């Protein structure tokens, strides 16, 4: 085969390869969503971050406004320090609430921001003071079971006392009533 | 009599094992020497880059059809199988993530390399083995042409360049195959398919690592094919054995290297 046609085919081949790589990066990967322009960083302390991971989304009203930049442990307060990169286009008041939510029942965890009413806005390096920890499923279940158990023991003690009473009532009252009723019936007859 | 026969048999078994082991080590060393020679004479072959382009045509462009068709089917099978499993857990939207991660991380580089070893590696081995059998390589040396720079190095670089391109195309076409099964045929939501995929496939840790993997496979596959050809006894039987060995050794090398590379990449 002529060398020029080979060159053409190899050119097409390499171009296809580059196009496929770009396609993977744009369509399959998160290259487009990873770059959210210029950001500013704020930190937030949580007592428990659950399964939050770096690069998890930061959402406000369901819109991704940033990403979790890093998670460290503060050995002075024994809290997790989560630094959040937030897009410069979005400003939040100083008393913004940071919560850790779970997407769906078993989905990934993300940081949700709920704007407050302060006039001063969060700036680079600020700290979000109002935070709410991640819901740990085990904790919730154990609490629920504990509550359920204490409730049911209460119910049982109440129910047992009531039932004994009613049994006493029925035992005490009904035979006599029946007898009384039947004797009354007989008397009427 | 019987005892000595048994003893001789045993000795033969051990001698065989030892011989194979020593032979394997010897071949490994010789292969490394050829690898080094190829690298050092690459500069010389890059000055005549049209040779490499010619080889890219034969190893890369000619492998396109088998790679693309198998990628399409692999993607469709992944879509079907993944859907049936994910559907049990009520998360059939995650099918995009499953297909993309499986292809980009593992199946793209590995299956491409296996197909490449069968399609291009054998051709390289047979070609070089025959060149050696018909004494073309010695003739080159007689004419003061370095056969490694003229014949081996262009094929090596062609394989190293072609493999990542083929693997990337494999992943892309596989994802399209998975899309075709999941969205129009099964009826998964297209938006969820792409958005979940984009949220969970990382450019650096998944896609770039896949490309790195395929480059390493390209080096291993092509080098094994070249060495087997270069080392083949100059007979018809020798070349046929060398071709068989190329497929066996490259497949094992690909799968072994895949484990090593993955264990490095997963920890990152």
Keywords:
heterodimer, A: 189 residues, alpha/beta, 3 domains, eight-stranded mixed beta sheet, 43% helix, B: 268 residues, mainly alpha, 10 helices
Descriptive account of the structure:
The complex is a heterodimer of chains A (189) and B (268). Chain A is of the alpha/beta class and 189 residues long. Chain A folds into 3 domains: 1-34; 36-135; 136-189. Chain A has helices spanning 3-28, 31-34, 137-188; strands at 39-46, 57-60, 63-74, 79-87, 97-102, 109-114, 127-128, 130-132. The longest helix of chain A is centred in the C-terminal third of the chain and has 52 residues, at 137-188. Chain A starts with a helix and ends with a helix. The model of chain A is unreliable at 167-184 (pLDDT under 50). Chain B has 268 residues and is mainly α. Chain A binds chain B through residues 1, 3, 6-7, 9-10, 12-14, 16-18, 20-21, 23-25, 27-34, 55, 57, and chain B through 50, 53-54, 56-57, 60-61, 64, 100, 104, 161-162, 164-166, 168-169, 171-173, 175, 194, 197-203, 206-207, 211.
């Amino acid at each position: 085969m002529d060398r020029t046609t080979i060159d053409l085919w190899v050119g097409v081949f390499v171009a296809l390869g580059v196009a496929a790589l770009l396609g993977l990066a744009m369509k399959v990967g998160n290259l487009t969503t990873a770059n959210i322009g210029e950001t500013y960083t704020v930190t937030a302390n949580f007592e428990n971050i659950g399964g939050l991971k770096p690069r998890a989304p930061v959402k406000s009203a369901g819109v991704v406004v940033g990403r979790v930049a890093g998670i460290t442990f503060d050995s002075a307060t024994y809290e997790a320090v989560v630094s959040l990169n937030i897009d410069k286009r979005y400003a939040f008041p100083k008393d913004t609430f940071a919560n850790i939510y779970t997407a769906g029942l078993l989905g990934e965890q993300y940081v949700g921001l709920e704007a407050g009413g302060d006039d001063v806005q969060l700036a680079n390096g600020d700290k979000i003071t109002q935070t709410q920890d991640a819901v740990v499923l085990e904790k919730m279940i154990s609490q629920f079971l504990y509550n359920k158990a204490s409730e049911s023991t209460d119910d049982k003690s109440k129910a047992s006392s009531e039932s004994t009473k009613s049994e006493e009532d029925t035992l005490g009252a009904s035979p006599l009533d029946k007898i009384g009723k039947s004797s009354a019936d007989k008397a009427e007859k | 009599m019987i005892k000595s026969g048994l003893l001789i048999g045993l000795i033969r078994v051990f001698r065989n094992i030892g011989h194979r082991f020593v032979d394997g080590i010897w071949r490994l060393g010789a292969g490394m020497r050829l690898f080094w020679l190829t690298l050092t004479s690459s500069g010389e072959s890059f000055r005549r880059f049209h040779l490499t382009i010619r080889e890219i045509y034969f190893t890369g462009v000619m492998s396109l059809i088998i790679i693309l068709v198998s990628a399409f089917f692999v993607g469709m099978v992944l879509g079907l199988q993944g859907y049936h499993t994910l559907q049990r857990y009520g998360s059939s939207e995650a099918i995009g993530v499953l297909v993309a991660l499986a292809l980009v991380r593992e199946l793209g580089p590995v299956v491409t390399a296996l197909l490449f070893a069968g399609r291009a590696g054998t051709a390289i081995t047979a070609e070089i083995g025959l060149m050696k059998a018909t004494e073309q390589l010695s003739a080159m040396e007689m004419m003061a042409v370095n056969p490694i720079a003229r014949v081996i190095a262009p094929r090596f670089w062609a394989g190293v360049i072609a493999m990542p391109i083929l693997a990337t195309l494999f992943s892309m076409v596989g994802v399209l195959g998975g899309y075709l099964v999941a969205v129009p045929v099964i009826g998964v939501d297209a938006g969820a398919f792409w958005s979940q995929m984009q949220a969970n496939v990382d450019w650096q840790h998944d896609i770039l690592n896949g490309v790195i993997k395929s480059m390493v496979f390209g080096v291993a596959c092509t080098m094994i094919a070249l060495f087997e050809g270069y080392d083949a006894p100059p007979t018809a039987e020798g070349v046929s054995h060398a071709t068989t060995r190329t497929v066996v050794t490259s497949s094992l090398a690909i799968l072994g290297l895949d484990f090593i590379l993955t264990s490095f990449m997963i920890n990152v």
